[in-house]
Amino acid sequence: MYEKLANAIKLIEEGQHEDGLTQIDTLVNEPETDDETKRTIAELYFELGLVDRSIVIVEELMFQYPEHGELFAFAAECYSELGKEDEAIDMLTEIKQDDDSYIQAQLLLADLYESQGLEEVAEQKLIEALKNEPNDSVLQFGLGEFYLNRGDYNHAISYYRKAIHQGDLPDELPIQPQLRLAEAYSATGEFEDALLYYKEGLDEEETTDGLFGYGFTALQLEDYETSVKAFNRLLEMDPDYTTVYSYLAKAFIALNQREEAMTVLQDGIKKDEFNEDLYLELARLHLKSGENKEGRQYLEKVIALNPSNVTAVKELLAYFEENEDFESVLELLSFLDDYNEYDPVYERYRGKALFEDDQVEEALEAYEVALNSLTRDDALLEEAAFTFLASNKKEKGINLLEELFKAYPERYDIEERLIDLKD
Length: 423
Known about the structure:
The protein is mostly helical.
């Protein structure tokens, strides 16, 4: 019996799926096939994504062995994969507290309730289970996962720490608990603790996500050498992990290794030609080096890919304004208007460009929108005030200068200008 199953599995592993599955289908229906083999076949079907075949076997076994909670848990996983969450919940609630599968059932129940948006019920299930088994590290880890997914990082840290301290965590956990704890610490800004646990977790198991988190955390701590090493190791493992390229480039830039940064960004674009962050970093790198033509082209590339990228738009508008290319400012804003892309910050640039183009009334309207929509910082207030004054809107200009001086009383130049205007 086991030899037949082994031969069928070998065929599947060798790519002969149809022949292998035919043999398994035949085997599961043979009268002499024992229940243990059927259970193994059900697990195999599940792994192959043939959940509808798996559940038929599991339901048959459940009928014969109603006291085996692990079968009910298995059935719940099948139902969940088939989109039958209510049936899955029914299966899990059948598992008694003294059953070896009880803890697994509570974890599965929590996942199901959470997926249905019933987060409070999910939390309650996990906490109730932990009250009954207060030293169970798997439940502690499960609560850590629950709180991490909710963004409640402090609670996640508490339960991850308890799980690690308790020990006895099974090898089949989805990730090293130290890496999860590191992720939670990093999310709270406690980067030193995060770096420590990332290193500890990666010593146990090197994963791409773990290396990314390690490199990113090192970047926040300005430990650029560590960041570069982590990101390079990640790319050795998975060159298609395209998120990392822009961060690796930032680390190289911080180390004044411009050519390395340029190479990394170009390599990233070869992997993902639609990655806006890579073009944006290339633009900044060129502009910082005085290569304005290339920098402008890359910013325009980002906007062509995604006109909604406000960061790229702002940087290109600032570049045009710095170079007094107000015609290009208006052309870019017209392009964005055609795509119904809008952000109030654009109105400040629009106002200045229109004023320089002698479209005074339109310029003042744009400044009014900016003043009513944006934080009225000193730059905006001063620019708008002098534009209104230059447009013979003296009262409005004075009011804005008074607002500016009230917020920034150290600006004696504004005080003097107000005195002159009021004389």
